[in-house]
Structure formats: structure tokens, C-alpha cells
Amino acid sequence: MQSQMPIGRDPVPRYVPEWALPAYAFVPGLWPHPRRPGGHAHGIVDAETAPLLSDQPRACRAFLRGLDLFNHGYYWEAHEAWEGLWRDAQEPAQKALLQGLIRLAACGVKLRQGLSQNVCSHAQAAQALFARAQKEAGHNLLCGLDLPLLQALAQQAWTHRAPRQAQAQVAVQVVFAQPLRLREGSG
């Protein structure tokens, strides 16, 4: 398996290092769908159902796995890790944050596919959702993530030029220069 990381990118910590990363990052049309026969997640049932608590993000393994997946170029898989948390979220700020992360992960998939127009729409939506999360939370840190930094990351994706062709030659490719890092402090 080939993997590519952006040049000059700092090493990224793993939040759940005992959990193995998949064999490939799903990109529609390039790799088998993970949940279908032959896919890297076929037959795997995720039994982890701990809720995401805004003031204790490290206690939620599904959230942490989503961060690991995103930071290592598994954007569709990160979306899957966060989707159940988003559906279960009760707090408006947390719901907006998770939906923003899902839309940012969709940017990663669309960047891999070379679909510039789709990247822009997902990135703009992500940026607006992170701004909404910040307004709802009343501060810059939520679930350990820096909301202004997430807005800037979405803006970078929005202005980034997607490659003209899909990146089929590598199983995993990190397309964001900055990883998502948990920060200590409130939220």
C-alpha cells in the first residue's frame, strides 16, 4: 500500500493507537466500498456507543477514531465514525461541530476525486457550521477542537485547487496540511 503525506507536515499523534487503520481510504470509483464484500469494513460491527461529552472528548473512542482516520487520510471512514455521534448529539454547538467535521471529511474525499465544485460546497458548509458551533458554544474551544482553526482549515480547502484527475495511484493520501489536534482547556 502506498501512502502520501503533505511535505513538511508534522508527525500526527494517534489518539487510539491500538486500533489499526484500514488497508485503504475509500474513494468512490477507486476502491471497493468498505461495507460491501471485499471492503475493509465488511462484516465489522462497531459496538462503541459512548456519547461525546463536550468537556471530555478523550472519553469517546468513536470521536477519537474519527480524528485518527481524518488525520491519516481516511476521510470517508472519519465521516462514518462521526455520523452516529452527530445523530445522537443533543447540544446545538456539538451537533454543528460534528456536522462540520463530516462536511470537512467530505472535502477530503472530493479532493481525492478531483471534484473542485463539490470541494467548495462542502468546505463552505463546514466553515459556516464551525462558525455556528463557535457562536452556540460562546467560546473558541469545543470538544477539544479549536473552532477558528477549523474555520481556517475549511477556508483552505475551499480555496485549494483540486487535482484534475483522481489520485488512484495511492491507497491513502492526506490532503489537508494541518491535522486536527485536541487541545486542553474548557470544552
Helix content: 40-55%
Low-confidence stretches: none
Structural class: mainly alpha
Summed up, the helix count is 5
Distance between the termini: 37 Å
Mean pLDDT equals 86
The fraction of residues assigned to DSSP E strands is under 5%
With strands numbered from the N-terminus, the spatial order across the biggest sheet is 1-4
Using only C-alpha atoms, the radius of gyration works out to 16 Å
Largest sheet: 2 strands, parallel
Give the second-level CATH assignment, the architecture: Orthogonal Bundle
Shape: globular
**Secondary-structure element pattern, one letter each:** EHHHHEEHE
CATH class group: Mainly Alpha
The domain tally reads 1
How many DSSP-defined strands? Answer: 4
CATH topology: Hyaluronidase domain-like
Name of the CATH homologous superfamily: TTHA0068-like
